[in-house]
Amino acid sequence: MNDNASSHPYRAGFVAVIGRPNVGKSTLVNALVGSKISIVSSRPQTTRHRMLGIASFPEGQLVLVDTPGIHAKQSRAMNRHMNRAARGAVSDVHASVLVVEAGRWHSDDTLAYQALKDSDVPVLLAINKIDKLKDKDALLPFIKEVTDGRAFDSVHLISALKGKGTAHLVKALLAHMPESEPLYDEDEITDKSQRFLAGELVREQLMQRLGDELPYSATVEIEKFEVDGALLRIGAVIWLEREGQKAIVIGKGGQQLKAISAAARIGMEKLFGAKVFLETWCRVRDGWSDDEAALRRFGYND
Ligand SMILES: Nc1nc2c(ncn2[C@@H]2O[C@H](COP(=O)(O)OP(=O)(O)OP(=O)(O)O)[C@@H](O)[C@H]2O)c(=O)[nH]1
């Protein structure tokens, strides 16, 4: 068994990070892992897949299961997939973190809480975005409101964005993990391939730059991922649902697509520690986000 300096046993296990869309789950996972493995945008429902973030500390290892936000609207196949991925993550973990936004409790928070309570593992509450609250005195009544009639193992006030309060949350989570050898090498940060992460980095730029003009259904497929000496040659296809959406993504004189590619390439170079040559194209396939077979082709497997 791997003992640290103070001879506490090394602990390692799985933690589900659950919450409604846009509360900061991916930002929290990235903060704990120390690298940007999960994409972030101000648009709700950015995270579509369940992915593992591996956070290693001298005292132990947390394998964080980042999930799509749980929400009540399930009309499209894509949304049904996202809810299934989030609920599936709750089984087989040692603890869960329910992430909520400071000052606001939403009916979808109740839905997420209920999914956790049915799971029989310790639930820690992380009240995120405390940096946004002008009136810190409002926190006490909020804590009282959200904990009234709901059982949490502990409550943590955090700012995932600024890294505030996260050390305390890590300590509390590690205490719930079983004694174990590390589950992953300490230099591993995710279970997803570089190919997958490359696609997500392009999608992040689409979400961030195009905001509400962008159809929610846009997705990215990596057609080429080749190692060429010290260079990575990556080819990305942006899939859209209608011809008219292409003009939005490409922009005047191709400027928008150029900016998307440039920013995604910088993100890839940072994450992969290698020079990247990135090519991007737009293609159209009608109605794919409500088509279960197309979803599987684009990697939305349960
Ligand atoms: N001010 C502030 N903003 C935050 C904090 N954490 C996250 N955000 C912002 O909230 C937005 C949503 O963050 P995400 O991490 O994508 O949220 P998510 O819960 O993973 O969202 P989904 O993928 O939609 O489920 C982004 O604009 C983040 O920068 C925080 O601690 N403080």
UniProtKB/TrEMBL annotation:
Positions of region (G4): 128-131
A single GO cellular-component term on record: plasma membrane
Membrane topology: Peripheral membrane protein
Residue numbers spanned by region G5: 158-160
Protein family membership: Belongs to the TRAFAC class TrmE-Era-EngA-EngB-Septin-like GTPase superfamily. Era GTPase family.
NCBIfam families reported in the protein's UniProt record: era (TIGR00436), PRK00089.1 (NF000908), small_GTP (TIGR00231)
Identification of the protein by name: GTPase Era
